[in-house]
Design the sequence.
């Protein structure tokens, strides 16, 4: 299950157990004050995004969702039939919304964000977190919830995937909102959403965003 | 290469500062404040609707700062403009010789004077840097269309907050911006020098301080009111450690400003001694008059001073009448740098 506020005592940074490669038990930061309420005029998202699938389970499911000969053909078939495509998209939306707070951006970044949806970030950062995260891990804009990138980092680190967040993610194509990201994934339209590595060895080229 | 780029490449300790653009249609008042910095700083940031408060645009303010004799750094946030406008502004900036650029994601509209405004955030700081580098080095827009000519000579900067959670990821995030093209980086307020040293150390270990010049953000807490505001959690990304609050609250309320200045001077001296630190960025917008004293207290004033030409672009300040000197920062004594 995803982390929740106050689960684990806060360990101040500088403690070496917090910084190592491979699966670690990352100290979970306490969340924002439980009694915080938005004031008049303060923005509030309709639904608080919070992943409901444990990181380890999500990474296992990824093994099935990754494009392979079967789902590529399945995807191609579904795309040819408008009714099937609509039904498939609705099913995807309902399941991913429930599990991850998915916003149906159509270009899923969950595999490299610890399965914490970056579109739940009010700034929709694909390369977060921003510098405004509160000392307890609270979102700068919605202090009643934790930063989705802090959550994502903790989840990724707990499964040994902390380095995923070092990949550079390319800008969002806003035409794709509402589309099924699985169909896009299986059809190969999601290639190059992120770099293979941290991009430091040689300047990562961002392909033309057509 | 811009004067700032030259200075950083030379390895000499570099000092940058900030100027708040005016909330008005002439930059006269800002130029008056700019004169206080002449010869003391190597470059100044011109903020982009800082804290989501509408001000004169950073490109126009940058031109005004240059007319006043300072080397400008034009800030651009991703809050107000989409990728079309951002690329367009980059081309415009390059065309008028504004080559020092500082990119950040930006504070949300709710913090500013137009909280009902629609936030854009089409790009983020990493993709913005990446885009600017693609334009400069590949000569292409994001779309792949060719630029005739490309904006060569751009000097790209970023900001980072080494202290915001998740602290163990903050060096990696800075590394990401460097991979995307950041050549210099200014940080949020440094109060905890030990934590800052750890962050710089992590970058240094990866060899990144040689690729990107790190400037530690230093500011003066001017008063008890300012301290309360900064410690309130209402300023994005700004938090004041307990040991600093204890120190500043431990003196007479009227002496908080002096103690704040002493504290800032100590921080400057301490970060200068950290290997890999290229200089400091003084978050003193609205408090320009304090900058000379601060640099002297910290022992870094060196050859600086009015009339030395340090940081000047050679265009001497014109004679100015004393019109409208009252434009101090409208909201607070401190400059809040966004993400």
Sequence:
């Amino acid at each position: 299950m995803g982390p929740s506020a106050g689960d684990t005592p806060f360990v101040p940074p500088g403690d070496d157990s917090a910084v190592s490669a491979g699966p670690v038990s990352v100290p979970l930061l306490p969340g924002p004050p439980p009694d915080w309420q938005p004031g008049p005029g303060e923005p509030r998202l309709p639904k608080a995004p919070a992943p409901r699938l444990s990181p380890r389970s999500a990474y296992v499911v990824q093994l099935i969702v990754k494009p392979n000969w079967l789902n590529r053909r399945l995807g191609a078939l579904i795309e040819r039939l408008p009714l099937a495509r609509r039904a498939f998209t609705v099913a995807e939306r309902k399941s991913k919304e429930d599990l991850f707070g998915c916003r149906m951006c159509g270009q899923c970044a969950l595999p490299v964000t610890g399965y914490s949806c970056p579109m739940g970030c009010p700034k929709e950062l694909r390369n977060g977190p921003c510098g405004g995260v509160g000392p307890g891990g609270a979102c700068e804009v919605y202090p009643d919830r934790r930063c989705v990138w802090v959550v994502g980092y903790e989840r990724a680190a707990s499964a040994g995937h902390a380095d995923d967040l070092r990949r550079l993610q390319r800008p969002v194509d806003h035409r794709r909102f509402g589309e099924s990201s699985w169909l896009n994934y299986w059809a190969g339209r999601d290639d190059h959403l992120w770099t293979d590595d941290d991009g430091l060895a040689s300047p990562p080229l961002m392909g033309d965003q057509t | 290469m811009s004067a700032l780029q030259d200075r950083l490449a030379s390895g000499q300790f570099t000092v940058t500062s900030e100027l708040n653009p005016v909330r008005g249609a002439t930059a006269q008042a800002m130029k008056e404040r700019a004169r206080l910095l002449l010869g003391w700083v190597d470059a100044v940031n011109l903020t982009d609707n800082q804290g989501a408060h509408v001000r004169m645009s950073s490109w126009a303010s940058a031109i005004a700062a240059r007319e006043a004799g300072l080397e400008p750094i034009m800030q651009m946030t991703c809050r107000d403009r989409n990728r079309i406008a951002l690329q367009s502004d980059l081309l415009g900036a390059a065309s008028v010789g504004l080559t020092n650029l500082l990119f950040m994601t930006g504070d949300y509209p709710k913090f500013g004077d137009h909280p009902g405004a629609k936030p854009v955030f089409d790009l983020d700081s990493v993709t913005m840097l990446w885009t600017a580098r693609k334009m400069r080095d590949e000569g292409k827009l994001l779309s792949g269309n060719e630029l005739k000519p490309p904006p060569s000579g751009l000097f790209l900067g970023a900001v980072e907050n080494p202290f915001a959670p998740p602290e163990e990821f903050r060096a990696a995030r800075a590394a990401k911006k460097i991979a995307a093209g950041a050549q210099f980086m200014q940080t949020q307020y440094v109060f905890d020098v030990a934590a800052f040293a750890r962050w710089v150390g992590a970058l240094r270990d990866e060899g990144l301080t040689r690729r990107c010049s790190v400037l530690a953000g230093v500011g003066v807490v001017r008063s008890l009111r300012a301290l309360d505001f900064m410690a309130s959690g209402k300023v994005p990304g700004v938090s004041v450690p307990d040991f600093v609050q204890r120190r500043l609250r431990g003196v007479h309320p009227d002496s908080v400003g002096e103690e704040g200045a002493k504290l800032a001077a100590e921080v400057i001296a301490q970060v200068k001694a950290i290997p890999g630190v290229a200089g400091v960025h003084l978050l003193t917008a609205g408090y320009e008059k304090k900058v000379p004293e601060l640099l002297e207290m910290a022992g870094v004033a060196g050859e600086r001073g009015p009339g030395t030409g340090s940081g000047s672009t050679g265009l001497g300040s014109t004679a100015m009448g004393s019109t409208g000197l009252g434009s101090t920062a409208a909201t607070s004594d401190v400059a809040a740098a966004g993400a």
About this structure: Residues 78 and 87 of chain A are 9 Å apart (CA to CA). Chain A has five helices and no strands.
